Amino acid sequence: MLLTALALFLQTAPSPGEEPVDPYEIKDSNAGATPFSGTGMLEAFGGKEGIRRIVDRFVDANLADEEIGEIFAGHDQVRLRRTLFEQFCYILNGGCRYTGRDMKSSHKDLGTQHADMNRLVENLQAAMATEGVPFAAQNRFLAKLAPMKRDVVER
Ligand code: HEM
User: Fold this and answer.
1) What's the fold here for domain 46-155?
2) 80 in ligand 1 pocket by Cβ < 6 Å?
3) Which of 6, 54, 68, 84 has the greatest count of CB atoms below 10 A from its CB?
4) Are residues 122 and 48 in contact, defined by beta-carbon separation less than 8 angstroms?
5) In this predicted structure, what is the pLDDT of residue 13?
6) ipTM over 0.95
7) SUPFAM superfamilies from the entry (predicted)?
8) What angle do CA 89, 80, 111 make, to 5 degrees?
9) Distance separating alpha carbons of residues 39 and 43, to the nearest angstrom
10) How far apart are CA 39 and CA 63, in angstroms?
11) Using CA positions, which residue lies closest to atom 39 of ligand 1?
C-alpha cells in the first residue's frame, strides 16, 4: 500500500516548470482514444515537430480567445502544452506515451459548455490548417477527439 502510494507519487512528480497535481495512475488509455495505425497520420501532421507547432498554436489561440480564454486562465500552461503534445502524438501513432490525466478528471469542475467545445475545435482546425494538415487528415483526427466531448463538457 505504502509502496504503491510512493510509486504513484514518484511517477507523477512534476516535470520541470510544472505545478504538482494530485497523484493518479499513468496509462495510455487516459488519452481517451486508441492510436491510428501506420505512419500516414503522423506524416500528415508533419511528424513530431509538426505536432509540437500545432499544439503551441492551438494553446496560444485558446488562451487568447475572447470566448474561452478565461477558462484556461490560471491553469498550468507548461503542463498543458506537454500533455496535449503527448496525447496528440500518442493518438497519431508518433511513438509517444501519454502521461497526463484522463479527460474526465482533468476537466472536472471547469464548467465547460458545448459552445466552448465547438470554439476549441475551431481553434484546433485553424492550427492544423495553418500547419498544412490536409483536410481529410484533420477530420480523421477530429473524429478521434469527438467522443471525448461527453467527458469534457459539463452542461
Ligand atoms: C476533445 C477535446 C479536448 C481534449 C482532447 C483536451 C485535452 C486536454 C488535456 C490532455 C489536458 C491536460 C491533462 C492533464 O493535465 O493531465 C487538458 C486540460 C485542460 N483542458 Fe482540455 N481538452 C479538451 C477540451 C477542452 C475544452 C472544451 C476546454 C475549455 C474550453 C478545455 C480546457 C482545459 C483546461 C482549462 C485544462 C487544464 C486543467 C487543469 O489545469 O487542471 N479542454 N485538456
Assistant:
1) Globin-like (1.10.490)
2) yes
3) 54
4) no
5) 81
6) yes
7) Globin-like (SSF46458)
8) 115
9) 6
10) 31
11) 75
